[in-house]
Specification:
This protein is of the alpha+beta class. It has two domains: about 60 residues, no CATH class; about 50 residues, no CATH class. The chain has five helices and four strands, in the order E-E-H-H-H-H-E-E-H. The strands form two sheets. It has a two-stranded antiparallel sheet with strand order 1-2. Strand 3 and strand 4 form a beta hairpin. It is elongated.
């Protein structure tokens, strides 16, 4: 159960041994982590599809991760619309932009 890490070619490889995973779990369970954060992490893992979503995000190229993160953190949208353009790029826009007084915000990923 090692973490996938990208090599220089961008492909994912397993580099971290299973023992490292147990080290992380041990540190979370000990006093190094606040109980509320640990509980919140547990509830997040219970959301249907969240693990697959996190894995898909982590497998994105670094530049694309930054674009998606910037879009979400800058706008903090309540609802997002998506479309694919003719070049195959994902376009995101804020559905609630008019309610919040913002213009349409797109990002190509």
């Amino acid at each position: 159960m090692g973490r996938k890490a990208k090599n220089d070619g961008g492909a994912a490889t397993r580099e971290e041994p299973e023992s490292h995973t147990w080290e992380v779990i041990r540190s979370l369970v000990t006093s190094e982590a606040e109980a509320t954060k640990l509980l919140e992490m547990y509830y997040w893992t219970r959301e249907p599809g969240i693990v697959e979503l996190i894995r898909a995000y982590l497998n994105l190229p670094d530049r694309t991760q930054r674009h998606v993160s910037d879009f979400l953190l800058k706008n903090r949208p309540q609802s997002i619309a998506s479309a694919i353009d003719q070049q195959g790029r994902l376009l995101l826009s804020i559905k609630d932009a008019q309610q919040r007084g913002q213009g349409r915000s797109n990002t190509g990923a």
